[in-house]
Specification:
alpha/beta; Aspartate Aminotransferase, domain 1; Aspartate Aminotransferase, domain 2; 2 domains; four-stranded mixed β-sheet; 13 helices
């Protein structure tokens, strides 16, 4: 791109655009992207960056896979949008069919939503409406664990850690119940005492709680932590004991990120309601889905008002559903399991030595997720310098320097990513 044009665009950006988690008056550095392919984002000045975080964890197959691009293009020529109330269309039907094939038996009623946060809002409403329909009208709250993150809309914030990034909004959010976060590491020896606080909470508040929601195995944006799958097994049994629904938020963990297609597979359990998003379309277009059990769907549908009370304008958008179908097909066309395992092994091998650095507090790896917990994070300007020096796009969040690369990332690119992470861990003054 012509330098004069790119400079003019960046001036307009600084004048008018408010970026996520950023100051409007003191904005952090931004890079002007003009195209992307595979693992690379191309900048206006011709440089390329390896996308080490899959553009916020969604591009599992990389940027612009030809199969997804062609599916969206072909669908755009036929039908780009139609309201889903009173209409249906083949991309939505096919995508629902493909999703149900991937989920546990009985988890087969699909409600499409616009984004991950909206998906969580829908799941919470669904759980409360289920309890009302089942005659348990007092169950108007949900439970979760500290350290969790479920989105940035009001209902989703209320279900996230109340002392996390949304603490300033606590006074205007609905109040729910929280147990301490699970502490037993994913590959550690299970400690039964780890589940005791949640068990006690559900026993005390069973008549008030409609559902428990949590991220299975991996707590994302509020902790970047992995916990023991036995916690989920204990929770599943305890929810059943009290007639409480279990909602699993697989928006970040689903579609292969932890080495299993869904993270719940590490525990061998199934929820009553499942939330998916991000990788659902391979990251091409925003789309999410709430997948409910037959029991949940039939109970809600069998009692007045006899319908689920939610309806997004762009629900089941045909372009997004076409992308979703193509993305799910791609999982059957290459060895994503082997790719993720290879990335996991290399991340463990190359990140573990960083544990000896004075600025490193912990190293955590599972699947295509690598986390370096820092004692002190470099300032945005230093991060930008390292990004341009190394050609690796990383964006630390608070104390967590992490990578979640596309599954197609090659070994030499993973090595470049871990090298850049080492530089960031060292350059914190």
């Amino acid at each position: 791109m012509n330098p004069n044009k790119s400079d003019a665009l960046l001036r307009l950006d600084r004048t008018h655009l408010w970026h996520p988690y950023a100051s409007m008056t003191r904005p952090p550095p931004v890079n002007l992207a003009v195209s992307a392919s595979g693992t690379r984002i191309r900048l206006a000045d011709g440089r390329e960056l390896i996308d080490a975080i899959s553009s916020w964890w969604c591009l599992c197959h990389g940027h612009n896979p030809p199969k997804i691009v062609e599916a969206v293009r072909a669908q755009a020529e036929k039908l780009s949008q139609v309201m889903f109330a009173g209409f249906t269309h083949e991309p939505a039907i096919r995508l629902a069919e493909k999703l149900v094939r991937k989920t546990p038996k009985g988890l087969n009623k699909v409600f499409f939503a616009d984004s991950g946060s909206v998906c969580v809002e829908c799941a919470a409403k669904m759980a409360i409406q289920y309890q009302i329909a089942a005659g348990r009208r007092g169950r108007k709250h949900l439970a979760s664990v500290r350290g969790g993150y479920h989105g940035d809309t009001a209902g989703a914030m209320a279900l996230s850690d109340p002392e996390g990034m949304h603490e300033m909004f606590r006074g205007i959010l609905p109040k729910h119940h929280f147990a301490p976060r699970p502490e037993t590491p994913f590959d550690g020896e299970w400690d039964p005492a780890d589940f005791a606080p949640m068990k006690q909470l559900l026993e005390r508040k069973s008549r008030d709680i409609a559902a428990v929601i949590l991220e299975p195995v991996f707590q994302g944006a509020n902790g970047m932590r992995f916990y023991h799958p036995q916690y989920l097994r204990e929770l599943r049994a305890e929810c059943d004991r009290h007639g409480i629904l279990l909602i699993l938020d697989e928006i970040a963990t689903g579609f292969g990120r932890t080495g299993k297609f869904f993270a719940m597979e590490h525990a061998g359990i199934a929820p009553d309601i499942l939330c998916v998003g991000k990788g659902l379309t391979g990251g091409a277009i925003t789309l999410a889905a709430v997948i409910a059990s037959e029991t949940v769907a039939e109970t809600i549908s069998g009692t007045a008002p006899g319908k689920f009370m939610h309806g997004p304008t762009f629900m089941a958008n045909p372009l997004a559903c076409a992308a979703g179908c193509a993305s799910l097909d791609l999982f059957d066309e290459y060895d994503w399991v082997g790719r993720v395992e290879s990335i996991q092994n290399q991340l463990r091998r190359e990140l573990e030595p960083l544990r000896a650095l004075p600025n490193v507090k912990d190293i955590r790896v599972l699947g295509a997720i690598g986390v370096v917990e820092l004692r002190k994070t470099p300032p945005p300007e230093t991060i930008q310098e390292i990004v341009l020096e190394t050609g690796v796009w990383l964006r630390p969040f608070e104390s967590w320097l992490y990578t979640m690369p596309p599954f197609i990332t090659a070994p030499d690119e993973v090595a470049a990513i871990t090298g850049a992470m080492r530089k960031m861990a060292l350059r914190y003054h």
